[in-house]
C-alpha cells in the first residue's frame, strides 16, 4: 500500500432543495484515499454515504441537489491532460486551463463532457442491487463490451492492427489433434494427453490445435480499408468522422472486428471475476443469472478499464451471507492484482473489519471519526463510534439486553445545532449544542470530530 | 426455438377467439331479418337461388345453420355485396390494398412521430416542448376524426388547394390506366416501376388522410412513451449507464428507449383497432377507395351482409395484429420469453 | 452459546416495571343513531378528502378539467333555461326552411345550421344528449363489467377462464366496428345505439376489475378477514371491491369522453338519431355539405363553415375536459397509495 493519495475530498457540503425544505445532506466531509488501499465509509442508512460516493462520480442530480462547497481532488487522467495541451480547448479563462494542466484536478469543477472521461475509466462504481443495476434487455456480454468499446478504442484498434499484420504473415502450422474425455471427465489432448480446458483451442503442452483455424482470422475483406480506419482510430480514438460513420447503418460494419475484440476481452473479464462457464453467461440476460453472478458481472464491468478507484456502494447488502463472503474476497483479490483503491460503503461493521484498511464513520452527513481499522475497533474515540461498537453483540459477554444508542437519526431539514450528534450523545456538553466540532487529528492517522477531544496541535 | 414455441402457442389460442367472433357475427346475421338476402342478388337465376337455400339450410335449427354458415365462410362464400355489386370476397380483395396502404402509412407515421415526441417530451420535462406536446396530445385524443378530416379538407383542399380532395391519384392516371398493380400499394408500385411523378402524386393524395387517421394514435403513443420514459429514467440501470461514462444521447436512445418501448408496443397494438375504426370515417370523407368507404356506403344502403363481412375480416386482422404485437413484445423484453 | 432459560434473568436485570396494558373500555357499537361513533368513523375520511382536495387544487390542469366538466354539466342541466324549447320534443331542433345564417345575425349567437336550426340550441341541448348517453353507457357498462370481472377474478378457475374467453372475443373487435355491426342490424334509434355502445364497453371494465381483484385478493387484509371467518361474498363486496375501485373511477371518467367520440362517429355515419336531432355528431353530419357548397342568400354567397365547426368544438371540449378530469383523478388516487 502506497502513501500516494489518489483521491482527496475536502470540506464537502451538499444540499438538496426539495418541496419539504432544504435537506442539508452533507455537512463538511473531508477524507483521502491512498493508492491500493480499501477505505471503508460506515454509517446508518441515510447518513450520506451514498451521496458522498455519487458526488465523486458526479452523479448527484442537479435540480434537487447542489454542491455548495468543497473540492474533490483526483489525479488528472492523461486524456484531460492531453486535451489541455490542445489550444483549441480553451478560449476563455486561463484559470480553467491552469487547473486542467496541473497534476491534480478538482472533479467538482469539471464540465459534463470531461467528467465522462473519468467515469468508468478512472473511477468506477458498483451498486447495491445488481438485479436492477443491470439493463434487463441487454445480455451480460453486451453490457461489459459496451464499456470496453467506449473507453478502450485505442487499445482495441491496436490489437486489430496487429491481427491484421499477423494475418498477412504466413500462418504457423499447427499439428492437428482432438479433444478426448479423460478418466475424471476432464478433456485431454489426443496427441500429448495433457489436460486441456474447455475453451482452449490450442493445447498448451504440445502446441497442437483443435480447430481448423486457431487464432482466428483478422478482418478478411478490404485489408487496406480496415488498416486505414484502425490506424486512424489508434491515433485518435475520438475522431469525429469515425463517430459519424458509426451511425450510418451499413457503413457501421467497420466496427465489427472491434466489437469482436471487445467481446473477447469481456470474456476474459468474466473469467477474471471467476464466473464458471463464461461463454454462456456472455449470452445470458441479467434475469437469468443469480444474485452473486450478477454482482460479479457488475464488478467485471467496473474493472474492465482498470480504474484507479472503485467505489463499492453496499455491494453485498442484497446478497446472501455466503455469497457476500465470496464477493468480498473477489474484490480483495482483484484489488491486489490490479492495484486499484476501493471505497467500500457499508453499514455492516463486520465487512469493515474484514476488508478495510482505513475507516471513516459518518453520522447525519458529517464525518465524525477517521482512522485505520484497528484503531477504530479497538479504541473508538467518538461517542457515536463507541455506541456502534458497543451495540455489536459479542459471543463471550453474557447480555440480557442489547445496547443501543438512544434516540433517532435527526431530520436533515432541521438538523440539530452545533454537533449533529448532541441529541443522542451520552457525554453531551453545553458547548456541543453551540458549535460544530471540527475534525481534528488526535493521534497519528486517527481524527475525531468531537469536543471531548480538542486543542491538540497536530496538523 | 423458444420464440417459435411461443408463436405456435399463441396461434393456438387464436382459434377459440376466432370461433367466438364468428359466433357473434353469425348471430348478427340471423337477427337481421332474412338471412338469405345476403346471398342472393338480382342476377341470380331461380335455380341458383334454390341452390343457395339448399346449401345453407335456412329451415333447420340454428346450430346446424351455424355449421353450414361456417363452412361457407371457410370456402370463401361470404355472400353478395349490394354496394359493390360483387361477391363480398371479391369486394374485399378489391378494396383491401387501398386500406392497407393507408393504415400502414398512418401506423408508421404514428409510431415514429409518437415515439420521437414522447422521448423528447420526457427528456425535456416541464420545458416548453413538453407543455406544447402534452396539449397537442390531449387535443389529439379528444378530437373526433371525421371532424378533423372535414376541417383539414376544408382548409387545405378547398380554401388553399394545397392538397387534393380525395382518391389515391389524380384522375389522369385513372384515365390513362397507367397504374401498376404489383403489390396494390401505389406508393411502392410507383417506386418499383420508377415513375417518380406518380409517386409524389400518391404522396400528395395520401398525406391528408394519413395525417387525419394517425392523429389520435400519435397522441396516445406520445403519452404512453412519455410516461414510460419518465419511469425508466429513474431506474437503477440508467444510473449504471451514467457511471460507465456514456453520453446522454446514448443513454436515452439506446438504454432507456428499448426498455420504454415495451409498454408502448402493447398500446400500439390496441390502438390499431381504433385506427381501423377511424379508417371507416376517414376513407368516406376523403373518397379513399378502401374497405372503410365500402363499409360506410354499405351502412347507408342497409347492406347488412357487406357490413358483417367487413367486421369478420377486421376481427381476423385485429387478432393477427395483436399476435404480432405480442411476439414483438417478447422480442423486446427478454424476461417474457420464458413463459 | 449456552442455552440458558432466557426467562431467568429478565425480572432481575430490568428494574423498570412493565406497565399494565390498558384495555380501552368498549363503548356501545356505533350505529347511525350514535352521533359520537359516527363522527369518529367519518373524521379520518374527511381528513383524507380535505388533503386530496388540496392536492387537486395544486394541479392547474386538474382544476381546468373540473371547471370545464362542471360548466358542461350546468349547461346541460339548464338547457331549458338557456334555450327554451318550442312545442313537441325539445330534442328536435326548431326548423326553418331557410339556409344557414351567419353567427350573430338575427339574435342567433352561433348562427343557424341545417334547415335553419339555431346552433346554440343544438349545442346546448346536444350537451344534454351527450351527457345522458355517455353516463348511461358508462354506468351500465361499468355495472356489468364489475359483476363479471369481480366474479371471474375472485372465484378464479373455470368460471374465470370462461368469462375471460368471452371478454377476449368482444375485445378482439375494435370499438367502432363492433358498434357498427350491432347498430346496423337493429333499428336505427338512440336506444339501440346506446345498447351497441354498452356491449362494446363492458369488456374493458371486466378486464380491469378482474386484474384489480386478483391482485387485491392476495392482500393480507383479505387473508385476515377470511381468518376471522367473514363470508366469501362479504369479503368480495366489503373488502375487495372498495380497494379495487380507484382505477375503475379513473377509467370510467375518461371513458365518458371516449363514448361521446364514438357516439358522435356513429351518428355521423347515420346510426342513432335522425337528422335534426340535437346531437353533436349528427349536426356535423348535417353540416358537412355546407363546407364545400357555398350558400347563396339574398345575393351574397358564403361558406357556412360554422354549421360543422361549432359542434366539433363542443365535442372536443367535452372529451378534453373529461380526459383532464380523469388524469387529475388518477394523480390524486395514485400518490395516496404511495403515502
Summarize the structure.
Chain B has 339 residues and is an all-alpha fold. Chain B is built from 13 helices and two strands, in the order αααββαααααααααα.
What brief labels describe this structure?
heterotrimer, A: 459 residues, alpha/beta, eight-stranded mixed β-sheet, four-stranded antiparallel β-sheet, 17 helices, 20% strand, globular, B: 339 residues, mainly alpha, two-stranded antiparallel sheet, 2 strands
Written account of the structure:
The complex is a heterotrimer of chains A (459), B (339) and C (339). Chain A is 36% helix and 20% strand. Chain A is of the alpha/beta class. Chain B has a two-stranded antiparallel ribbon. Chain B starts with a helix and ends in a 7-residue tail after the last helix. The model of chain B has no long low-confidence stretch (mean pLDDT 82). Helix content of chain C is 68%, strand content 2%. The chains are: A alpha/beta (459), B mainly alpha (339), C mainly alpha (339). At the B-C interface, helix 1, helix 5, helix 6, helix 11 and helix 12 of B face helix 6, helix 7, helix 10 and helix 13 of C.
